[in-house]
Amino acid sequence: MIVEIGHYALVLALAVALINSVLPVIGARRNDAGMMELATTGAYALFVLVLLSFLSLVWAYEASDFSVKNVWENSHSAMPAIFRFSAVWGNHEGSMMLWLLILTFFSALVALFGRNLPESLKANALAVQSWMGVAFALFILLTSNPFIRLSPVPAEGEDLNPILQDVGLAIHPPLLYLGYVGFSVSFSFAIAALLDGRLDAAWARWVRPWTLAAWTFLTAGIAMGSYWAYYELGWGGWWFWDPVENASLMPWLAGTALLHSALVMEKREALKIWTVLLSIVTFSLSLLGTFLVRSGVLTSVHSFTTDPTRGVFILGILMLFIGGAFALFAWRAPLLKAGGLFAPISREGSLVLNNLILTVSMGSVLIGTLYPLVLETLTGEKISVGAPFFNLTFGLLMVPLLIAVPFGPLLAWKRGDLLGALQRLYVAAGLALVAGLVFFYAKNGGPVLAVLGLAAGFFLVFGALADLWYRAGFGKVSVSTGWKRLTGLPRSAFGTALGHAGLGITVLGIVAVTTFETENVVEMTQGQTVQAGGFAVKFDGMRATKGPNFTEEQGHFSISRDGVQVADTWSSKRLYTARRMPTTEAGIVTFGTSQLYISLGDPMSNGGIVVRIWWKPYVLLIWGGALVMMAGGFVSLSDRRLRVGAPARRAKPVKAYAAEAAE
Amino acid sequence: MTRKQKRLAVIAGGMSFILAAVLLIMFAFGQSVAYFYMPGDIAKANLTPGTRIRLGGLVAEGSVVRGEGSTVSFKVTDGNTEIPVSYTGILPDLFREGQGVVTEGRFAEGGPQFTADTVLAKHDENYMPKEVADRLKEQGLWQHTEEGKP
């Protein structure tokens, strides 16, 4: 019964979304306040209905109601409650429900926080959100309905794919979707502005917090997914350039560009057309990602069993929205007036450089991801474009950006002083180079290029600190005044510094782990010891255990340094009984930010076992940096929390104004 | 420099960055793209030894031999032709005889021996690498057992 209510709620949601797609737009045309007001109510109603529908599916999973086909296919009564919960979106149908839920969630937030928006802009934006709601509700109901019942009712479920039976599934998809789908808001605002034909700095001020929030979640989602793949798959890698990873990286790159160009638009009214275009492109890439993952044109961890009608349907949605958006853009964009002028060397100029590099490197990822698909469709030839391609192109293209980042915040708006910025940064650059060299020699060895990579990472961190240092005026004023000025800086200044420093930390982690990582593949027998990363790893033997829905062969390892045992760990191979599917559970021991990563291979005939042992120095910095970037996002968001949707700048205390002028 | 010249310089700079990126992408495609072959294609393909390719097919029944240390050798078959493959490392969890597999690596000088540095067998018990599945269907060797779903 509950499941039927959920099903019905989804149908109702489709009806509400249909109404909400049309009436507010007409209202905005006719300047009818009542019809425009409907968009707000509609957005709330839509969210409540979809939430109801989603919760009924959650209930079916928690109650292990195997008469629901979707539950039977993806759950098992022996699974712990938390996995039964996350299993809701561990399959195609459920993940589309999550997509729709988050879409309507963002619409409701826009309705809630957008009280000060111009009525027509808000009505149009919410209507655009509803168009997407219609498309995806239809998609779910017609091709991917999770509420279909089975008869006769099976006694037991088929279990969830064991790879997904992990807390990672509870965290990674919701975060990722909050990011992916969050960009729908800037998309809707862009379309609404094009429909309205009005675009000014205030528009950028409304859009930026949404973009920032989506970007922050997407950063978190990608980092979480990367760490999950790292510890769960047992291959010790943290990024595989898998098409699905690329699908999430592309909106991130475009979103990062958007974040920066919207800043120019907000402060200087320049780059208007470009910013609107980027809003469209960013969300189009989110849609493209959804298509790549959901249509089954790619094979990866993320493609569940698929049927072709779904692919065609999503391709239809994709073409409709992306094609429509670009057509509208081509038609309306020439009407928009270009804004403020600026010299090439200026804050704006540096942000243009940022946008150029980010979009071009995004393009390289896009080409590498789509080329095999296009080639196969056209010629039937099958090729694989893998890590070597992306490392070469994306890696090289990003280098100038890493060097340029610290300069940006030090340049003034309109006309900047590059020499002045250089003078302020040479200490940071020198320190970075020294730090890189010290790090390199302490680890003795590796390619010389690594010194430069490490120096680039340190430069980003020190550059971010230097920015704060000069803003506070340390060195020119007394320490106490400097401190006072530092604490008086707007939060967005700290957000910028954290974002840039976080990038630097991630770069450091990537360079360090690629350069200094060691890998041993050895055949070990009980009692044998292997050296890795300055530790002695001793294999103590195997034991067999049982989990709720799997059997497990565990190997015990004790780790000692200079003869003293410092840690021990279990590394195991599991066999999930319902699906007869084996998985590897790596044994991971953390020392500071470095990790020892032990995964088991096949047993040998002589009683030994093949063991793979990695020493991964500073590997945690990769995700630590992402955490710092996220923190930057949240700090910036908290700065403008009160301004979200506020069209007029409120009068500010003089002190804060002075700090902003110094920006 | 006048404003116009400055603007031209900026545009030229941007364009040359994009051009450099395009050249880099084309160069990288030439360098690092691996073509996919089934065992039967190898004889016709006229590969120079040392070219990096992907070789896909089924792991031939009874062909998996574990050698010294962690080196494993097996044969990849498409039903007619078999290619011997050697691989050092840990095989994926789902590597099994009779199952689909994609290996990536190079042929040794002057011999049919394929040395793989990557072996892919993906994350689902019914999983068949897409390239392999497509080709097996073409050749009429497709025997995927449909799960007994009501």
Shape of chain B: elongated
Q: Measured on Cα atoms, how large is the radius of gyration of chain A?
A: 27 Å
CATH top level of the largest domain in chain B is: Mainly Beta
Q: How far is the first residue's CA from the last residue's CA of chain A?
A: 59 Å
Major sheet size, sense and barrel closure of chain A: 5 strands, antiparallel
Which strand-content bin applies to the residues of chain A? 5-15%
Q: The biggest beta sheet of chain B, please?
A: 5 strands, mixed, barrel
Poorly predicted runs of chain B: 123-127, 143-150
Helix content of chain A: 55-70%
Can you say what the CATH homologous superfamily of the largest domain in chain B is?
Nucleic acid-binding proteins
Q: Number of helix segments of chain A?
A: 19
Mean pLDDT of chain A: 87
GO molecular function, one term (chain B): metal ion binding
Protein name (chain B): Cytochrome c-type biogenesis protein CcmE
Main location (chain B): membrane
Function (chain B): Heme chaperone required for the biogenesis of c-type cytochromes. Transiently binds heme delivered by CcmC and transfers the heme to apo-cytochromes in a process facilitated by CcmF and CcmH.
